[in-house]
Specification:
- This protein is of the alpha/beta class.
- The protein contains eleven helices and eleven strands.
- The chain has helices at about 50-70, 80-85, 90-100, 110-125, 160-170, 175-200, 210-220, 235-245, 250-255, 270-280, 295-305, and strands spanning about 1-10, 10-20, 25-35, 75-80, 105, 130-135, 140-145, 155, 205-210, 235, 285-290.
- The strands form two sheets. It has a six-stranded mixed β-sheet, with helices on both faces. It has a five-stranded mixed β-sheet with strand order 3-2-1-4-5, with helices on both faces.
- The radius of gyration is 20 Å and the shape is globular.
- The two termini are about 20 Å apart.
Length: about 350
């Protein structure tokens, strides 16, 4: 089947189209992004601005047309921290469905962590053992850990790369004082989570995912994306420390010129690097493996798990593009809210 995943993040609206069936490797067929920086369009009252609302509606409309042109059978649409934290989130989501027909749903932070963990678990397999996964987004940091496909620990903290940049830095590049104060503050914020991770046992494999980690690894010497997703990529604590000393002296405009850094995210690269460094320090992590799969792939895999292997959906789960479930039972967690227009469901 051909699936579309529409990811409304803090920086971009990203449509990923894949061909896949249960038990198969999802094959990417199309990817397109619109840079909105919704997190920067939150007003002092905590609302997404009217301009931000309109930009979001326009981007979703464009993505819907692209998905239709590419013959997607379904589009799973979800939003992360920027939309879910807006005080007018319900109004925004209502406007999107009224004007586009796409029932965009806000995904909770812990559910982000769980779905990302599922993607990483499937990528590395059971041999990864007790798996620890870190994901730095624009608005939040997700951490998950466990032995199975459902993590025993799934946490989300408001420590995203963009949020740190907006709230902690007033200079470009950041001043030495801002860097030092932010590093110390981040370690304080992450200390309770580090204790939870320690109680979950020693990880057998530590993995990082997200554009922030991929960019940092590339700048630290990892293979370029052109080498393909299966090339091993590592980010060590030593390399990260040396990298921060270099990039923290550069303006956002100069960072955007570096290979592996997208222009839309260059301004928040230093903030993301400080989050990564603080997380590695408080959890005593010496290196991270980079995984090419993350949240979007996790949602696709969960959706495929609900099929019966014959291009149909198993009873009691997502039915078809009529956007309903086959029963009215209550989902056990928030992940049942991510597909376009679903109501209820047995297993989220």
């Amino acid at each position: 089947m051909r699936l579309g995943v529409l990811d409304v993040g803090s920086n971009t609206v990203h449509l990923l189209v894949v061909d896949a069936h249960r038990g198969a490797h999802p094959t990417p067929m199309h990817s397109e992004k619109t840079v909105l920086r919704l997190a920067e369009q939150i007003t002092k009252r905590g609302e997404l601005s009217r301009a931000g609302e309109k930009a979001l509606v326009d981007a979703v409309t464009t993505a819907k047309k692209s998905a239709a042109a590419l013959n997607c059978e379904e589009v799973m649409a979800f939003a992360t921290s920027a939309v879910r934290e807006a005080t007018n989130s319900a109004q925004v989501l209502r406007r999107v469905v009224d004007e586009t027909g796409i029932d965009l749903k806000a995904l909770s932070g812990p559910d982000e962590a769980r779905m990302t963990f599922l993607a990483v678990r499937r990528w590395f397999g059971w041999s990864a053992g007790n798996l620890l996964v870190l994901d730095i987004g624009g608005g939040s940091l997700e951490v998950a850990m466990g032995m199975d496909e459902e993590p025993t620990l799934a946490e989300s903290l408001p420590l995203g790369a963009g949020r740190i940049t907006r709230t902690r830095f007033s200079h470009d590049p950041p001043s030495r004082g801002e860097l030092e104060e932010t590093s110390d503050w981040l370690e304080e914020q992450l200390a309770p989570l580090a204790r939870e991770v320690a109680r979950s046992g020693k990880p057998d494999r530590v993995v990082a995912t997200s554009k922030t980690f991929r960019s940092l690894a590339r700048l630290a010497g990892a293979a370029p994306s052109a080498d393909g997703p299966r090339v091993p990529r590592i980010l060590s604590a030593t390399a990260l420390r040396q990298l921060i000393a270099f990039i923290s002296r550069m303006t956002a405009a100069d960072l955007a010129e570096l290979e592996g850094v997208s222009a839309s995210r260059a301004h928040q690269l230093v903030g993301g690097a400080l989050v990564a460094q603080a997380a590695m320090r408080v959890m005593s992590l010496h290196e991270l493996e980079i995984c090419p799969w993350a949240l979007r792939e996790g949602l696709i895999l969960r959706r495929l798990d609900r099929t019966n292997g014959e291009d149909d959906t198993a009873p009691g789960t997502w039915c078809d593009s009529s956007r309903r479930w086959t029963d009215d039972s209550t989902p056990v967690d928030g992940t049942a809210a991510v597909s376009a227009r679903w109501r209820g469901g047995r297993d989220a």
